[in-house]
Amino acid sequence: MGILESPPIAAAPAAEAGRYWNAAIETLPRPQLEALQLARLRSHLDFAYRHSPYYRQAFDAAGVGPETLRSLADLRHFPFVNKAIERERQAAAPLLGDMLAVPERDVVFVSASSGSTGVPTLSPFTAADFETFQDNQARLFRAAGVTADDRYVHALNFTLFVGGPDVIGAQKLGALCFWAGAVPSDRLLYILQTFRPTVTWTTPSYAWHLGETARAQGIDPARDLAIRKIIVAGEPGGSIPATRAAIERIWDAQLFDFYGISDIYGACAGMCEARDGLHLVEDDILLEVLDPATLEPVPDGTPGEMVLTTLTKAARPMIRFRTGDIVTADRSPCRCGRTHARIRVTGRIDDMFIVNGVNVFPSDIEFVIRSLPGLNGEFRITVADERHLTRYSLEVERGESTESDAALAERIAHDAKTRLGVRPRAVTILAPGSLPRTTHKARRVVDLRGQA
Ligand SMILES: [Zn+2]
After folding, report:
1. CA–CA distance, 192 with 148 (Å, rounded to integer)
2. Do 26 and 128 share a domain, yes or no?
3. Proportion of the chain above pLDDT 90, given as a percent
4. 278 C-alpha to center of ligand 1: Å?
5. Which of 6, 229, 409, 445 could form a disulfide with 199 if both were Cys (CB 3.0 to 4.6 A apart)?
């Protein structure tokens, strides 16, 4: 059975004007969806085993093969892959590595992600993979309520970044698209003023920053610009209610959180109009949520590491890829009628630190700070060891408030202790504008552990 074969599903016309991009797939009852996943996973494992030298070796070493899989649960017998393996296999067999399952001549696109070691890992796509990527992206845009009547500005980086081509998904559903890219704020504001687009996509911290920049120039984004939807990705902020509300207030627009990852696709999951979690494209990507310590599955609603498996991506199948993202899964029916699982992203394992045995995510601290009045939402966390104990302290910018620094600091410390279970060692209140602003992914954690 070939990689692209799967049980017959009545395909909805691609340009369907309704609320779904592909109603048959998006509302498929879960037993049928899982049957489709199983059929696709079987043929995908078989394809990977036959065509990728890496997977053949890894499956043989683990004593598994395509025939090991009788149910979706059997996937747990297969070995994991991660960023380090990806990097190593790429170095072992340049250019694209021996996880590749097609000849290089069949690869038409690569994205690159740099990561902490600075060696970019390449994510290859065949023409069919790229087509699926953009069809999934069109589905996510449609779920967020974007239509052919929208004008869309794509304000993500185009240089090797997997989010760059996502603009094609908006074009596919008929929106009028402006390929802006990562331009300076003044240029982007000029585009927003001149062409009056209705939808844009940035990171949450950049949406906030751009709103502040506009206001500083005497432009009120809510009154003077036409943006009604802002798609965000790349940071947890888009799913933190207080952060979302603050950005929505500045813009008088609705925020939709999307999730993509270079190793798989730029388009993996996105919020529908119910905005209660992000629907994963489950006919194309299989979800596991595992306890990061035991690597055993956790029940829906319990946070765990998200492990993703591609079901059709031919160039480089990803079997059990450990994303390093902490999520909760929700497979209950959604108000929008879609049956595909929803994820809520809590944070990155890398950013998590442990204080008194409590797992602390920067997104939890962001939740506290953005929920409190009298602050402008900007903050920085410093994690340090003190006599072998990990402690964290906070620097927080004040907003419009007449409260004393001491009173503000005490409220933050109290709320942090209530929500997180551990009190910060110190809270410093700063004047607005004291902390460095970022236009890309906000790095809010300074880790001084292991330093003298
Ligand atoms: Zn929904």
Report:
1. 18
2. yes
3. 71
4. 8
5. 229
